[in-house]
Structure formats: structure tokens, C-alpha cells
Amino acid sequence: MQQAEGSVAKRPSGLEWRASFWFTTVVVGSGIAIDLLVYSIIIPVIPFQLAALGHTNVSAMTGWLLFAFSGGVLSATIPIAHFSEKYNERRWLLIAGFVILIGSMIMMMEAPNYAVMAVARVLQGVGSAFVWTVGLALLADATPEQAVGQQLGFAMIGVPIGLTLGPPLGGALYTRFGFRAPFVFGVSVAFLDLIGRLVIIERKDAIKWGFDPHVIASKADTNANVKQIDEKKDLEAIVEKPASPVPQLPPIQPSDSESSPAAQVTEEAVAVDQKPVKLSLHRSIKSLLQSSRAVAAFVISLLYGILLSSQEPSVPVHLNRVWGLNSGSVGLVFIGAILPTLIATPLAGYLTDKKGAEFITAPFLFLGIPWAGILILQSHFPLFCTAYCILSFFVSGVISPVTAELAAVARKTEGVGYAHVYSAYNMAYAIGTTIGPIVGGQMHDRLPNGWMAICLLAISTLGAGSIIAFAFIGETPLLTRLNRAIRHT
What we know:
Layout: H1 2-9, H2 15-19, H3 21-41, H4 46-52, H5 58-86, H6 91-109, H7 114-142, H8 148-155, H9 158-177, H10 180-199, H11 203-208, H12 213-217, H13 219-238, H14 261-273, H15 281-289, H16 292-311, H17 315-323, H18 327-355, H19 358-367, H20 369-374, H21 381-396, H22 399-412, H23 418-446, H24 450-472, H25 478-488
Helix pairs in contact: 3-7, 3-8, 3-9, 3-10, 4-5, 5-7, 5-23, 6-7, 6-10, 7-23, 8-18, 8-22, 9-18, 16-22, 16-23, 16-24, 18-21, 18-22, 19-24, 22-23, 23-24
GO molecular function, one term: transmembrane transporter activity
Subcellular location: Membrane
Main location: membrane
């Protein structure tokens, strides 16, 4: 009893909001935005620094630095996921990722030669792997099952924000203050992100103090159920009692579903302490590969990465060649494309929670196809901007149901944790973003109609993704539902 009283006295201040899934969403979402901001803010300045160091083949060397980042992501993702699940640790791994990220930025800023720059980019990729693998797992841990898609959608807003704001900020800071300015800015912003990582409290720790964000989130539903029970009792009181005496039954103990939130928190704490032993890394990977839902989500993530990154190096060149836009005007086009994504990702996540991932993923992919085709036209600039923004809406809306689908796979697959599924997602996306720029750049430069080829590539990836989603995404995929409907007609 004395130990319990001592524990209560040490209850962390602000426990409720620090452990809430909304605060976790803000921390993870800002971490994603800052990670991609730091990644992209130095892209415009790397070629100039390579030239200053005396290198001539600047374009190819820049490409290898981008590849080094992806190499860091791919090499670190699986060990991070394994460690996170084996020791059930999230928060301190996020802080470790921060330290690696800051160290890589400082190393890159002070790099005396190309070899050190390459090592710095590899380390930056390692730090990014912490954010994506552990951060998404932390968010899935803290969020109730019925709200996972919505919260992942809000967190994913950080993707377009970081990728779009990084290059123009990097270019402006480099022009005004020199080479070190973008790195100093990136380190400063990352320190702000550290505050959230230090303040946050994991759900497994909050439960020990009598607070579970899952229970609090479902309190409204519990109150609604209690109200219905009270109304039912009032109706029963109106009914006339039978004339003959009825033997009285012993009082019924409240069921598990009617237990108080405090009791539910206690049960959750027991569940956390007695959770099943995780599978080995090899068996976890094998279990994921045996799940058609997981494999489909990974393939769609790969296609998503190819689609996004294949257009990035070519859109500015296309806008300049056809309509004569300078870098500032191109930046405005990219910023305009952000606005639809701020709506699409949380909206798609909310609809995923309400309807299911199968009803969102395939339609969003399919509806993006005509707008990718319109981008081929070179007649009207406003038409291009409209099509580009609508395409961004549908493409960005895909990631929320896909990540929610992976969370569902982790919950239903014994021995597989959130870190496992999100590490595989991170690897698939990293491979896609490694392939995309190379393929897109080569197609644009070497083919007679390079821009048309890139748009056709986008149409192909959207089409392939929509077919895969139609056949495999969801607990009951749309193809299965269609077959059942045909058999019953």
C-alpha cells in the first residue's frame, strides 16, 4: 500500500494531454514534416557546394548523395523495428533518431570532402528511419482502433508540407546567408521537434498511472450505452408487474463491457504486462509476406513512392520549357499543390475509419488516372495547375488508408507489431523514391516525348495500384464483395 501511495505521488504532471492520441499525432506529424524538411532543404544547395569543392560531374554526384540517404533508410529500418518490438520501446528510440539526425546535419555542414558528405547522408537516412518506423508505431499504439485512419491522416499532412517548403527555404537561405544557413535552420527546427519527443508519454507508461487514452476516447460511446440502459429500465418500470409472484434472481454482476473506465484501465495494464511473446524477426517477416493484405499495401507504397519521386525532378523543367516559369513561379505551383493534400489525408483517414480501407484506396487511385492524363496537354497553364492539384489530392489521400490497413494487419497477425509493418512500409516507400527519380529523369532527358512518358508512367502506377487495392485491400476486398454480389443475383 505504501508503494502504491508513493507511485501516485510521482504521477507525471499533464499526464492526460501528454499521453493523449491527439498530442501523439501532433508530435509524430511534426516529426514527419521536419524530417522531410531537413531532407529536402539541402537539395538545392548541394550542387553548389560540390562545385565549390572542385567537382565537375555535379549532377551525378548529387544523385549518389540522394541514393546514400535511401541506403541509410533501407539498412537501418529492419534493425530499428526489431529492437522497438523486442523491447517494447518507442519514445527513447525517437530521441536517439533525433541525435543521429542532428549529428548528420552538422557533419554535412562541415564536410571537407565528398566522402564525408556521403557518410552524413547515410546517417541522415538512419535518423529518418527512426521517425517513420517508430513514430508511426507510437501513433498506432496510442490511438484507439476506430480512429487510427483519421489520426494517421492528420500525421501524414507533414509529408507534403516538409517536401514542398524545404527546397524554396533552402534556396532562399543559401542565397541570402550562404551554405551553412540551411543546415543551421534545419538543426534549429529539429530542436523544436525534440521538445515534443521529450514531453510525450507512451500509452504503456500512462496505463501504469491509471490513464488509458483508448478508454477515454471511447468514454462517449460508453455514456451513450449507459443512457440506453437507463432508458430501457424506465420503460420496464412502466410495464405492469405480473399478478403471480416471480422468483427473484440474484443480482447480475456488470459485464466487462459495462465496467468503469478505471476498471478498464486496470485490465489494460494487465494486458500490457501479459502480452504474448513476439515472433523472431525472420518469422515476423514470413508472417507479413503470407498476408495478401500486407503485401498489397507494401506494393502500393512502392508505387506511391515511384509516382511521387518520378515527377519531382521533371515538373520544374517542364514548366520552364513550356510556359517559361522561373524557380519562384514553380515554387508557387508546388505550394498550390499542397493545399488539396491538407484536406485529402485527414479526410481519407476519417472515411477509412468509417467505411474501411477497401472503399477508399482503390477509388482514390482510380480517380487520379484521368488527371494524370490531362497533365500531358500543353495548351493551357490553368488547366495544368488544376489537374496537378486534383491529382495531388487523390494521390496523397491513398497513404492514410494504406497505413491504417497495415495497422489492422498488425493487430490481426499474431507476433507482428506496429514497428514491423511500418518498417516494411518505410522500406517499400524508400525503394520507390530511389527508383523514381532515376527512371523519371532518364525518361524525361532521353525520350523524344519525355514528359508524356512520365505522365504515362503515372497512369500505369495508378492503374496497377487501383487493381491491387480492388483485389486485396481490406478485410473483405471489393473484388470479394463483387463476386459475392454476382453469386447472389
